[in-house]
């Protein structure tokens, strides 16, 4: 074993045992390090302040509100109620767990399932086409279109006498009240949300497809593998990191979004398309019940966290690191 | 080296850097909405309303400009947001200590605002004046637990709009007066194509929004002698024979295909695809614009009652102008509101029918100019005159017998819960009994929480 002296120890050895001068040097270095730390923190202050003001403070305030009653008008009127708001959310007869939270999960799951499968197919097709940039741009267009416009256009298409029912009628089928029937309203909105979010998924997946080495495909071709085998055995497994990213982000977006629902159905008919984020918004801004709204926000936060961790765990089990 | 001659006189970058924050601070501290605070300077009152654009904005600005031109000590400045943002804006401004001196809330929110300490009760002399000058429905809308909180402004009563041409085509020569006639007319006028698409709705039930869905149902409930909320405001009263009768009627109309709740009734009626619908008076102005010459086919009648000898009743909704509990100059604000809402002035631009010396309050003139009503029946008779739109007459008559929309604490949530249950009934998710029971349970729970 070779003993290697660090430059600092070598220097100290050359000068003999520690002296008063060395102690002074040590103190100087400590001072310098401390000064450097102070400077570093000073540089960090704007970022830390930003997080404190826009993340920690609102989070703390929301936590306080979730255990209080507050009408939203006067900060002096915040009235602590312990866990009553949470108990109210999950009390017998409350609509929060079912159908609201159930709708939220179905909406998010449905959106992810549709958008993911659709985007995998489309991205794979685009990867084999010419003018790939053009196709990607076309599919990306819904992302840059305002939700209000998307929601209203689809609403008109779904209406009795609209485009979708027109096609059904042309095929000799009867009209369907997509957004008015509680059985079809949620799936109808899920389709629109998936359509609107498929563009970003395609963008990520096409990038993922580009990163798969061509040599794998060449080897598969030499072995005589067909396109389906290549897709299932090479493309899909190697696309898993991109799929994980799309899956997690789309699922989180789905759990928290309500803009499309408010435009298309306002949560109706009844509570058929009501989701947690919309209910929170109504509780706070329409009914002035900020306590319940904040409690619902924390309940949704727990669901989001659990769903995200579960997704990460599932993908990591399969050997992929997000 | 000599200094540049301009340097000594002009504003250097350093001076500018020092002066800018000071100027900004000074202008911020001046608190423009409260006036400068210097002795002799005018008091500036702020007024927040939803009269944010078009003719509504101009209609309110007219009297405000007149006040500002004729009053030196107190000036009024208006702020406006869209109706959908009004409650949120009131909340946020109030929480931030930036509440306006005068508020123009939808009366449905009054219980919530009073409970939160936002609204100041009207001083006795104003409360007395309001009680004397307005109809019972208007005073009821502007009151919470019997205490008046503001001057009623825009009042809406509900009546039955009908398409004369569609009724005539079905062999019906007058609007229905009873529910039996209503149902009969609805079945006879409704038409669908082979694919189930609605061509004509006999009676337009609509899930368009809270106000449409709930407004129609409550107007019919009131016509049947029922109430949504009990007299003390602490529980719902809809689970009653009258409530059951209304839910039964609506359920029958939907199941039979005479009503198609998914259709946007506001567009469909204007396109001649709805024979009858219950709606508020503001719609007449919109219909005139949308329908053009076809508006002559539109008639308005009182909301039908269950039996011919029942007393008429309907729903009324409204807005009011009240003073913020945090207002620095409440007496000045109340004085402005009295001037705007009760002082009678000569009416300009009226037809000969009204006479040359006709007078009305500024608020009544303002509301009529935008196709709305106030709760002052005398003003309405003067302003609408004999030559006005006859379709407005039933709404005006209804001021005498309309039931104000409940405005207890939690009223907005109660209304939303009722809408959800009505929709669940219309779409077959709940039976009449279940819908009534669920409404009662949910509304009772929420209303009791709000007290």
What's this entry about, in short?
The complex is a heterodimer of chains A (322) and B (451). Chain A is an all-alpha fold and 322 residues long. Chain A has helices at 7-14, 20-66, 84-89, 96-127, 132-144, 147-158, 163-170, 182-210, 214-222, 227-238, 240-256, 259-264, 276-286, 290-317, and strands at residues 68-69, 79-80.
Descriptive report:
The complex is a heterodimer of chains A (322) and B (451). The longest helix of chain A has 47 residues, at 20-66. Chain A has 14 helices and 2 strands; from the N terminus they run H-H-E-E-H-H-H-H-H-H-H-H-H-H-H-H. Chain A has 322 residues and is an all-alpha fold. Chain B has 451 residues and is α/β, with parallel strands linked by helices. Helices cover 45% and strands 17% of the residues of chain B. In chain B, strands 1, 2, 3, 4, 7, 8, 9, 10, 11, 12 and 15 form an 11-stranded mixed β-sheet that branches. In chain B, strands 5-6 form a two-stranded antiparallel ribbon. In chain B, helix 10 packs across helix 18 (411-426) and helix 11 packs across helix 19. Chain B is globular, with a radius of gyration of 26 Å. Mean pLDDT of chain B is 86; it is low at 1-11 and 16-33. Chain A binds chain B through residues 71-75, 77, 88, 93, 95, 159-161, 165, 168-169, 173-175, 177, 179-182, 266, 268-272, 282, 285-289, and chain B through 87-88, 90-91, 94-95, 112-113, 115-118, 195-198, 207, 209, 260-263, 410, 412-413, 416, 419-421, 423-424, 426-427, 429-430, 441-442, 445-446, 449.
